[in-house]
UniProtKB/TrEMBL annotation:
It catalyses: L-methionyl-[protein] + [thioredoxin]-disulfide + H2O = L-methionyl-(R)-S-oxide-[protein] + [thioredoxin]-dithiol. One of its GO terms (molecular function) is metal ion binding. GO terms for cellular component: cytoplasm. Its cofactor is Zn(2+). It holds the Pfam family SelR. GO terms for biological process: protein repair; response to oxidative stress. Transmembrane segments: none annotated. This is peptide-methionine (R)-S-oxide reductase. Its EC number is 1.8.4.12. It is an enzyme of class 1 (oxidoreductase). Residues 10-134 form the MsrB domain. It comes from Nakamurella flavida. Keywords: Metal-binding, Oxidoreductase, Zinc.
Amino acid sequence: MSQPKTVKSEEQWRAELDPLAYAVLRESATERPYTGEYTDTTTEGVYSCRACGVELFRSQTKFASHCGWPSFYAPSESDNVTLITDRTLGMVRIEVRCAGCDSHLGHVFEGEGYPTPTDQRYCINSVSLTLAPTAG
């Protein structure tokens, strides 16, 4: 199920997001490793896009990759993220963007040998996420 698109001007995004969130989500920056709010959290719940609220990941797919950023082995719904070839910084990587608002979330890597069902690591900036803990 494809997500409705959230379209705002850069001025609107800048007014709604703090400077770090704006830099990461709208300018494809990366937060410093091991500084993000969700890097080591084990709270059960749903992770959504900080910019538009689209559900992106569930805690059941989060794992400790020890890479400095929250890592997930799959999005909650494949239609909720967009994967784009990223050729910046002299590398070829796969960028992960929110399908709802086209905000930068991080990158996905494959074949690293993590013991996960997909052998993928969605390496996501904490500042691009919000976590709604599961009640209970």
